[in-house]
Amino acid sequence: MKKSIITILSLVAFIGGFIIFYQNSPADQKMKNPPKDGQQTDNPQKWETKIDDQANVTIVVTPTDLSPQSMQWKFDIDMNTHSVELDQDPLQITTLVDDKGHVYKPISWNGAGPGGHHREGVLLFNAINPTPRLVEINIKGIGGIQERTFQWRLN
Q: How many angstroms separate the CA atoms of 92 and 90, rounded?
């Protein structure tokens, strides 16, 4: 009986000490929740991440460089599904459109090749000069969806 009381008290003391230690640990050592406002922390310009989830395919697009000083604009593209093959060529199905309706084709895809259920990479476009007020990325024909549109205001 005396042994079980000592065991219980030791366990309570250990748990209490752990709680006190955790509550007093520095803030930068505690787990932080991921951002909930649609922005990625590794994106220095803080462009909003846009998500389109239709027909069992989720596409996530985040601009990583849209600065007027850049020669190329970069967009992180992430595609996920469990039902269709992602075998489309991003260079053929994606366009960048400015606020005046001018359409620009991508110049490079640096990412996973065709096929599978997950593809990610960086899509590059020549920078638009002068910088438009807004741009949109249009992706056609994935998962039977005619067109998915992702839009950002630049200034």
A: 5
Report yes or no: 90 and 106 within 8 Å, Cβ to Cβ: yes
CA–CA separation, 6 and 77 (whole Å): 58
DSSP 21: H
Phi first, then psi, for residue 44 (nearest 5°) are: -60, -30
CB 134 within 8 A of CB 142: no
User: Average pLDDT by consecutive 10-residue portion of the chain (155 residues)?
Assistant: 67 57 42 37 71 96 94 97 92 97 97 92 96 96 95 91
Q: Please report, for residues 76, 91, 117, the alpha-carbon distance to residue 40 in angstroms, rounded to integers and kept in the order given.
A: 11, 24, 23
Q: Tell me the three state secondary structure of residue 68.
A: coil
Which residue bears the tokens 């000592």? 6
Fold classified for 50-153: Immunoglobulin-like (2.60.40)
Domain ranges of the chain: 50-153
